[in-house]
Structures are given as C-alpha cells and as structure tokens.
C-alpha cells in the first residue's frame, strides 16, 4: 500500500496519468538465476503497482497477488551449481550461448500454456498489453511480439550487451572510450586496452551475428521468419552513478539494483555466529552458478589456510562437506546474502563479481575482494577497483600468502571501507527509485502505443550507413580524381 501511494505521488509530480490494469506477458529465456532475479524485480514492481503479470520462468517464485507463473524448468536449460571446468568451457563460447537460447526458446514456445496464449490471440480472447522478455543471445522475442501485435520491453540483467547493442538500439559503443561487456577493464585507458577492446568488440559482434546466421541456416525455426520487433524500452541492470560515463539512447533505462529487497531476518545460528565475532565477519560466495567445491584442491586449501589466519569469522557458501574446517569458518550451501551484507559487522565480501552481488555490496557499502571468472564479471570488479573499494585477483594463481595479504589490506586499510560508503551513497542517490522507473516507463509505453518515438531513427539503417562508409566513399571520389589528374599532368 505504501509503495502504491509513493508511485501515485511520483506520477503526480511528473504530471503523468497512471495506466491501470496493465497485463504483462513475461518470458525468461535464460536459465541463469541472476537473469531471473533481475526480471523478477521488474515484474514485482509492476504487480505491487496493481498490474497483472503472467510469467514463463524456470525459477518459480510462488503465488502472489496479480501474479501468475508458468514453470518452464523442464523446457529451459538451468545453470545452477556448475563446475569450474564447465563454466570456463561453456560460457566463453558464443556458439554455445546461441544454441542454448534457441533450445530454450523452442521449449517455451511449445509449452502448452504458451500455445494456449497464441490460440487465445487467434480467437481474439488474449488480453495482453506488453511483452517483457530477456533478449539474450538469440531473438525469439520478436516472434512473440509480432504474433501478439504487442510492444516489447527488454530485460537485460547486466550492462548493455555490446555484442548485440547495434541490433537492440541501432547504435554501437565507441571502443575508444566504452569497454566491451566482456572486457577485463572498466574503461580502456591505455593504447593496449583500446586495441584489445576494439578487437573484442568487433570479434564478439561478428561472432554473435555469424552464430545466429549459422543457426538459422543449419537449424531453422518457425520464429526465424518473423520480422524483427525493436524494443520500445530497454531496462538494464546498470546505473550511471557506479559505471563509467557513456552516451545512451533515450529508451535505455538504468534500473540497477531493482532486485534489492528490504533487509529480512537472518537465521538464528548465522546471526549468533556474526554477532559473537569480536573482529567482524568475512562473507564468501561465488554465487548460484559456480560450484566452489569443484575448484582444484590446492586452491581450496589456500583459501582455508588463509582464512584460518584472520581474526574475523567467515561465512563461506560451500556446496559439499569440508575436511579440516577452520574453527572460525561456518559453511552452508545457502546463505541469505542480502541480509548478511547489510549487517554492520560484515567487513569484507569475497565475490566472483556477479552483478547482483556487486549491487548488494554497493548498497551495503562493503569492500570487495573479487575473483572474476567469465562474461561481465571482470568488468564489474574493475568498476569497483576504479572506485577504490575492491581488489581483483586471479583465482587460479592464488596462494595462502597472497590471499592473506589481500584480506588484511582490505580490512585494515580504512580507504576501502570509506570509498565503499561513498560509492553506496552515489548508488542510492537517484531522481526516482528503480521500481518507480520501471512502473513509469512501462506505463509510458502503453500510454503512447508502443512509444516508437523513443527509438533512434538510425535503427533501420544498414551497417555501412551507420558508420558513414557510403559518405566516406563519395567524399573520396573527388580526392582520387584530383590525384589521378595531378599524376597525369606530372607524367606528361
């Protein structure tokens, strides 16, 4: 009720008329928990505002008011508790990602409940106003939006997917100043970084387009023939207060931290473990996808020995039994991460750099020791390093000594905690909350019949028009003509 009143007041200030009873069809095409955490945050904002959501998801949240979910865990390939070897092998390949998403799309579109929605549309009884979907590495969303004649809103659980940015927005980031999503740096500062960033951007974009083209040729699907439906609005899990500055199109909306919920109760045994610590607590997790216990023995041993030598207590998310468990360490297969990080006794967060955990650390103002592994994690951690609230290390070259030095530096040097608190203040300083932004812009799309005026006019241009190659070619014609005439005159 309080949130609904807040939203109404916000709309009154903005001078916009709220749209009532919006019906949203949500489709999660990825099997990663972090993807769903972000989309779930978007959808919860809408249901809390009184809108109705029907969601196809492999991670059911359970029933609530205005919310209907269809479990697709049997159709979507879910990535939870994956071994280190498989993570580094599978997630690095564009071909694997495209194939997985197309497999997931097949399962969702063939789901009897989804087929029922399409039949209801054909019969004129389907009543939806907008599609919210994760576009990811392959496009089956356009088929849904085109078939149902609905505007589409993208849910991107990271910063902009630079390899697909041109297709999503019509624009491409300049690699001279904007780091690729999978770059090892937050900003390309040196010549070598600009060179590698350019190569990464060109290669990843070409690989994305090629793999999608190849899949359409070798394994054609019915949705491949649907015309592309550009997104009316894109919600991305980013925030300009904690990212390097960059130009963005009008319809790209930052709602980083949308998944954050108010602090809840910490289970009694964990709470006692935290509060009985005289020197504070270190929280250690590599998220839901990566299985820490699958790491090589010597790496786990280095962590155990280093953590055993710090005065802090340690909460370590670990999936199996652990031999020689240090006295100051508690292990569990799951911890209430958000609630733990908000506890004032947490001194350090050891993380792989997943964006959900990064925003939880930012919101709580906790320093981070990062061990980025793949995808956007290296860039995420380097953003925190640039804010001087984190240290980044290579997971596969750690030793007891290097770990212990990093622990002690982050905990004893006050600059890291101070800078984490400053970054937290910036993260929270916004003109409206992420939830209010989601409600406003989703309703904006409905009020303005898909809001096509928000999309860049360059969206439908060809690649050579976008990069002005046709203009350059025309401008070079007189140059070559004059050069040729001069050559002929000289040669007379």
Automatic annotation (TrEMBL):
Coiled coil: none annotated. One of its GO terms (molecular function) is glucuronosyltransferase activity. It holds the Pfam family UDPGT. Residues 1-21 form the signal peptide. The chain crosses the membrane at residues 463-487. Its EC number is 2.4.1.17. Its main location: membrane. PANTHER family: EG:EG0003.4 PROTEIN-RELATED, FI06409P-RELATED. This is UDP-glucuronosyltransferase. It comes from Sipha flava.
């Amino acid at each position: 009720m309080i949130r609904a009143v807040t939203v109404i007041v916000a709309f009154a200030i903005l001078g916009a008329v709220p749209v009532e009873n919006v019906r949203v069809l949500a489709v999660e095409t990825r099997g990663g928990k972090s993807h769903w955490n972000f989309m779930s945050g978007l959808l919860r904002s809408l249901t809390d505002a009184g809108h109705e959501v029907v969601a196809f998801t492999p991670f059911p949240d359970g029933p609530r008011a205005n919310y209907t979910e269809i479990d697709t865990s049997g159709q979507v390939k879910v990535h939870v508790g994956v071994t280190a070897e498989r993570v580094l092998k599978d997630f690095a390949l564009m071909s694997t990602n495209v194939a997985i998403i197309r497999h997931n799309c097949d399962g969702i579109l063939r789901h009897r409940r989804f087929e029922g929605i399409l039949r209801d549309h054909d019969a004129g009884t389907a009543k939806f106003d907008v599609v919210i979907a994760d576009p990811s590495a392959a496009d089956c969303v356009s088929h849904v939006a085109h078939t149902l004649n609905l505007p589409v809103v993208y849910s991107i659980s990271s910063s902009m997917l630079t390899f697909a940015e041109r297709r999503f927005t019509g624009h491409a980031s300049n690699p001279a100043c904007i780091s690729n999503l999978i770059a090892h740096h937050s900003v390309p500062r040196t010549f070598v970084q600009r060179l590698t960033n350019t190569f990464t951007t060109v290669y990843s974009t070409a690989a994305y387009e090629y793999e999608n083209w190849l899949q359409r040729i070798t394994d054609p699907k019915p949705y491949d023939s649907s015309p592309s439906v550009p997104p009316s609005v894109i919600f991305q899990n980013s925030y300009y207060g904690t990212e390097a500055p960059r130009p963005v199109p009008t319809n790209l909306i930052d709602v980083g931290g949308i998944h954050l919920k108010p602090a809840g109760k910490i289970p009694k045994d964990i709470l006692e473990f935290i509060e009985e610590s005289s020197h504070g607590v270190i929280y250690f997790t590599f998220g839901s996808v990566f299985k820490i216990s699958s790491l090589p023995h010597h790496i786990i041993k280095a962590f155990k020995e280093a953590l055993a030598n710090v005065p802090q207590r340690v909460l370590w998310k670990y999936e199996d039994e652990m031999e020689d468990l240090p006295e100051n360490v508690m292990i569990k297969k799951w911890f209430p991460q958000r609630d733990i990080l908000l506890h004032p006794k947490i001194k350090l967060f050891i993380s792989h750099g997943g964006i959900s955990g990064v925003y939880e650390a930012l919101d709580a103002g906790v320093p981070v020791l990062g061990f980025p592994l793949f995808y956007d994690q290296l860039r995420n951690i380097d953003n925190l390093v640039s804010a001087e609230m984190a240290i980044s290390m290579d997971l596969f070259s750690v030793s007891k000594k290097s770990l212990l030095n990093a622990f002690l530096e982050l905990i004893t040097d006050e600059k890291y905690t101070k800078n984490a608190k400053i970054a937290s203040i910036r993260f929270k300083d916004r003109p409206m909350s992420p939830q209010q932004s989601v409600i406003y812009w989703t309703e904006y799309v409905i009020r303005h019949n898909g809001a096509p005026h928000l999309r860049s006019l360059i969206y439908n241009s060809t690649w050579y028009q976008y990069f002005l190659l046709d203009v350059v070619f025309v401008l070079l014609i007189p140059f070559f003509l004059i050069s040729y005439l001069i050559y002929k005159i000289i040669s007379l």
